[in-house]
Amino acid sequence: MKTLIDRLGREHALSRAEWIALLRSRDAETARYLFGKAREARRRYYGDDVYIRGLIEFTNCCRNDCYYCGIRRSNTRASRYRLTEEEILACCREGWAIGYRTFVLQGGEDPAWGPDRIAALVASIKQAFPACAVTLSVGEHDRETYRRWFEAGADRYLLRQETADNAHYRLLHPPELSPENRKRCLWDLKEIGYQVGCGLMAGSPGQGPEQLAEDFLFMRELEPDMVGIGPFVPARHTPFADQPAGSLDLTLFLLGLVRLMLPNVLLPATTALGTVHPRGRELGMLAGANVCMPNLSPPGVRDKYALYDHKLCTGEEAAQNLQSLRERMASIGCRVVVARGDHKPR
Ligand code: SAH
Q1: Is the CB of residue 235 below 6 angstroms from any atom belonging to ligand 1?
Q2: Which of 74, 198, 308 to mutate to test the pocket of ligand 1 (most atoms within 8 A of CB)?
Q3: SS3 of residue 161 by DSSP
Q4: Which of 39, 54, 199, 289 falls 20 to 30 Å from 258 in CA-CA distance?
Q5: What CATH topology corresponds to 2-337?
Q6: Which of 64, 146, 307, 312 to mutate to test ligand 1, by most ligand atoms within 8 A of the CB atom?
Q7: Residue range 245-302, pLDDT digits in tens
Q8: Per-residue pLDDT tens for 103-152?
Q9: How far apart are CA 114 and CA 145, in angstroms?
Q10: 3-class DSSP state for residue 42?
Q11: Is 132:340 a contact under the CB 8 Å cutoff?
């Protein structure tokens, strides 16, 4: 398997059969070897710098009904909230003062936050903080809407494909959502000029090496600027409440593989990774990640953006605790930097 890893590091691509073989034979020794190579690749582009993003979860109202998600429409137990423009700008002011230069606006697909309202919000954030980057993560929309937001000043967009395997996509989503539209959105976003992030949940129900191989082939083709990978974590009051969580080891392995395939990608050690292991974030960096997205939402709503159970939102997860994040990163030889942290070209 080391020969496949070496080749991935050299050629940045594998065939479907090779991906499946590599994913099937994952073990501790292969992982150690992979992580060493992944760290080398990360250093070539980003050194030991860790970029931070202030995550503002501005609405947990959603018109969609994804089977895995704790804020799905059918979950009547979710306590719904929406931040106002003023509350969001207050988060940005606070974040800017502590050193955040990217704000990620993430939310459900909330009809109360229509295209005009989001465009105006983006414009007012960029007006108040011209040197910041704004990342949107608000789901599937038409190309014109994405274009409006880009023209309003949005720099980046996060939309995980969730799975590139069409049958697997249908297993995770209700019939009104389609894998074709999900992928169409990603291609539109790229064409418009966003820095684009895709990604998936490691260990989601029904996922095996065959499904993951499709994800790698798809990501090779899309060439995203960012890839978000965290473990699936079951959420109560959802159809997948009793499914097992994705493992730390699988998540780390996938991070390492993505780093070798797309060496200059921006790769976060996600909140979900921190949730399944107390040192998840550090282990993510050691597997090739270089981004952290602490929570900048107002403390009063943080626990309500419950995509899954036991989601972290305090401690190092809180954007305000930058000092402890700095120390944790320093303990593994990484350095938190104050910068927009844009994608570097190859
Ligand atoms: N509405 C936006 C944002 C979704 S939330 C969108 O559609 O893109 C961001 C990510 O959280 C999702 O893309 C999904 O991959 C992840 N997520 C949702 N439920 C999860 C769960 N139970 N475990 C782990 N990750 C989950």
Answers
A1: yes
A2: 308
A3: coil
A4: 54
A5: TIM Barrel (3.20.20)
A6: 307
A7: 999 999 999 999 999 999 999 999 998 898 889 999 999 999 999 999 999 999 889 9
A8: 999 999 999 999 999 999 999 999 999 999 999 999 999 999 999 999 99
A9: 9
A10: helix
A11: yes
Backbone angles phi and psi of 37, in degrees to 5: -65, -40
How is the chain split into domains, by residue range?
A: 2-337
The predicted-structure confidence for 287-315, as pLDDT tens digits, reads as follows 999 999 999 999 889 989 999 988 887 66
The model's pTM is 0.97
**Tokens 């700095």 — which residue?**
326
Which pLDDT belongs to residue 319?
75
3-class state of residue 187 by DSSP: helix
- Give the CA distances from residue 289 to residues 93, 166, 268, in Å, rounded to whole numbers and listed in that order: 27, 27, 5
Q: Output the pLDDT for position 339.
A: 96
Question: Which residue in 93, 100, 103 sits closest to 58, CA to CA?
Answer: 103
Q: Which atom of ligand 1 is nearest to the CA of 108?
A: 1
Least confident of 209-218, 234-243, 313-322: 313-322
Ligand 1, from 69, 141, 158: best to mutate by most atoms within 8 Å of Cβ? 69
Query: Which atom, in ligand 1's list, is nearest to the CA of 140?
Result: 7
